[in-house]
């Protein structure tokens, strides 16, 4: 990652805050690499005194996540507050109607609870909530709708996972954060790559070939294992709804229809979005 690319992200971040009339940011610092990189961008853009970070653990959270979050905050003199979610969350989980709640539902509830608190803290500090979902996760739909995928601004949403690692080294983020296995830390021993079934390295190479190099299916299958291709394509298409705003029903014919984050010109319907690109190589 070169200085020019980093400066562009930081300037874009500054510009949005100026437009919004805000000068403070709130972010959830998980102890992971994505939130660390997003926090560094916020610090570089706004100064460390204008960034409020929150570590929001649950009783099943890894102790290492807390250690890494605190080490990061100490290194960069960041204001870090810790709010334990256990009592709040368990009030809901212990209800009779939730006696058979799955790990996935627990994880999603915690993710949304964290974002609820972050938005409340943003209101307290007259700030904007900074998102931490990277491009790879967004394309895969690997995240919780209105949980970790929610934010007011996302400085890392156009960065593949491999670019997150490049930025982490650029910002001199602690090695303990860079080297550990990626995890959302939603339950004990949970890791991203175990859930996804493939390494981020392989997934990024595939996504880059599809979206940046625009290779067709034949060319892609010459480069990648068919199971990887088919499984990732299925995940991307099945989670398409996560990449769109709530569907708005249309009541009139217009020259330009804004629908699901895409402007469709009635005179020129050839525009493509991510879903169409993936669908073309199925």
CATH architectural grouping of the largest domain: 3-Layer(aba) Sandwich
Q: Largest sheet, order of strands side by side?
A: 3-2-1-4
Reading the helices and strands in chain order gives HEHEHEHHEHHHHHHHEEH
Which word captures the global form?
Answer: globular
Task: State the helical fraction.
Answer: 40-55%
Structural class: alpha/beta
Q: On the 0-100 scale, what is the average pLDDT? A: 90
**CATH fold-level label of the largest domain:** Rossmann fold
**How much is the radius of gyration in Å?**
20 Å
Count of discrete alpha- or pi-helical segments spanning 4 or more residues: 13
What separation lies between the terminal Cα atoms? 32 Å
Q: What is the CATH homology-level superfamily of the largest domain?
A: HUPs
Total discrete domains: 2
Q: Which SSEs are present, and which pair or pack?
A:
Elements: H1 3-20, E1 25-28, H2 33-46, E2 51-55, H3 63-75, E3 79-82, H4 86-93, H5 103-124, E4 128-130, H6 135-140, H7 161-170, H8 175-179, H9 192-196, H10 200-211, H11 217-223, H12 226-238, E5 256-259, E6 262-265, H13 274-279
Parallel strand pairs: 1-2, 1-4, 2-3
Antiparallel strand pairs: 5-6
Helix pairs in contact: 1-2, 2-7
């Amino acid at each position: 990652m070169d200085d020019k690319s980093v400066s562009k992200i930081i300037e874009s971040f500054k510009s949005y805050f100026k437009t919004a009339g805000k000068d403070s940011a709130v972010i959830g610092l998980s102890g992971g690499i994505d939130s660390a990189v997003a926090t560094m961008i916020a610090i570089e853009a706004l100064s460390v005194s204008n960034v409020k970070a929150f570590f929001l653990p649950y009783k099943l959270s890894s102790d290492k996540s807390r250690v890494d979050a605190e080490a990061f905050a100490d290194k960069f003199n960041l204001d870090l507050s810790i709010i334990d979610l256990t009592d709040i969350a368990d009030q809901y989980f212990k209800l009779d109607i939730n006696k058979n709640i799955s790990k996935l539902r627990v994880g999603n509830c915690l993710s949304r609870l964290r974002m609820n608190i972050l938005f409340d803290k943003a209101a307290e500090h007259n700030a904007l909530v900074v998102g931490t979902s990277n491009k790879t996760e967004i394309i895969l739909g690997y995240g919780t709708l209105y949980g970790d995928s929610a934010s007011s601004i996302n400085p890392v949403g156009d960065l593949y996972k491999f670019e997150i690692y490049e930025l982490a080294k650029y910002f001199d983020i602690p090695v303990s954060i860079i080297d550990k296995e990626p995890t959302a830390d939603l339950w004990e021993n949970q890791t991203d790559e175990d859930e996804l079934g493939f390494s981020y390295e392989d997934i990024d190479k595939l996504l880059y070939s599809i979206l940046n190099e625009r290779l067709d299916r034949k060319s892609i299958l010459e480069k990648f294992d068919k199971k990887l291709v088919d499984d990732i394509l299925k995940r991307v298409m099945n989670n398409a709804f996560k990449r769109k705003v709530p569907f708005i029903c249309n009541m009139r014919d217009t020259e330009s229809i804004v629908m699901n984050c895409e402007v469709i010109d009635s005179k020129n319907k050839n525009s493509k979005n991510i879903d169409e690109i993936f669908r073309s190589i199925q």
